[in-house]
Amino acid sequence: MEASKVSSGGDTTLCNASTRGWLSVAAVSFGTFALVTSELMPIGLLPKIAAGVRAVEGNVGLTITIPGLVAAFAAPALIVASRRLDRRGLLWLTTTMLIFSNLIVASAARLSTLLAGRVLLGIAIGGFWAIGAAVARRLVPPESAGRATALVFSGISAGTVIGLPAGTLLGELCGWRIAFSGAATLGGIALAAQLCLLPRLAATDAVGLRQLPAVARIPRARVALVAVALVIGGHFMAYTYLASFLEQRAAVSPGVVSAVFLAYGLAGLAGNTIAGELVQRDVRRVLTGAGLLVAATILLLSLVGSRPLIAIALVIIWGFGFGAVPVSLQTLMFMAAPALQEGGSALFVSTFQLALASGAFLGGLAVSSGGITVATLLGGAAVLTMPATIWIFGKSVSPR
Fold it and tell me: Where on the tree of life does the source sit, at the highest rank (predicted)?
């Protein structure tokens, strides 16, 4: 009788711990959603922001570029600076930065103030992403690590599907300053959840300046970082100008383009969820398959995308394939350097953000010199080199 009571009590304790762990992962994921929403918010509001701070749209476009570039350098810097700090404290700090960055942007009267707020956001993005996925994996049992990583990365798709359209609509109805105030509110909710739910999380490995190049010296880690650069750079070379492609090449109306982006994001959520279940079995196959699917759809879009229905279908398939990419890349990095997960995450974030900014920049050059179709074709070709790299050089990259 007594044994049964003890067993029952132990099961209850384990159940409560498991529930709290998943709630903590959800709090981190909501922080991801708030970050992505804040980072993408200017895309739909550039004309209004430009008018509000009396600047040309081309200069206001720096609000998109700057956070990515700052995040690329902030990720390793913050990891090294906070090498022995409680990881939940770093999450609290970066989420607080997110809140203040949006409040600065919402109150900005000049472009310089606006960009200062976006610099602060870049620091928040770098620090949060460098430890977010690694922390999530520690909050659940090892066999659920893939699902936890997928849940954190689902904030990317949710920010695209829900955050960006909602922020654009709020900005249209109430003004762009209210939209950024709303993003600050999202950050406040995320911070409150993290304060209530996150347990103490000691640094697993004291990341010093010597450990970052140590990660890069691991052959599997180098393969993972090259894969990140190729697929993310190629993706954003084409994706940055997708709306223009749909309107100009496929003759899709602006109203329908918004619906297409919504469908893209929903498909991305599905791809993210499925990949989260599969990456623990064989991340190499999942990443290779996702890369081939993304490359094929982008290349087909550049070749036969003049037909609206075909273009829309290809974009939705593209979203499904790319939804599996971030969680697969991050898992690949974890497996490549299991003893240096935070250092690996810092280099992952830096490479990701630099590839994003470089891809968008090179895509712009391609559009200026050869047109949108050229940018799409080059982006698809760049993505195609990723699965080839993984398959040729990454045969030992996915221990099961």
Answer: Bacteria
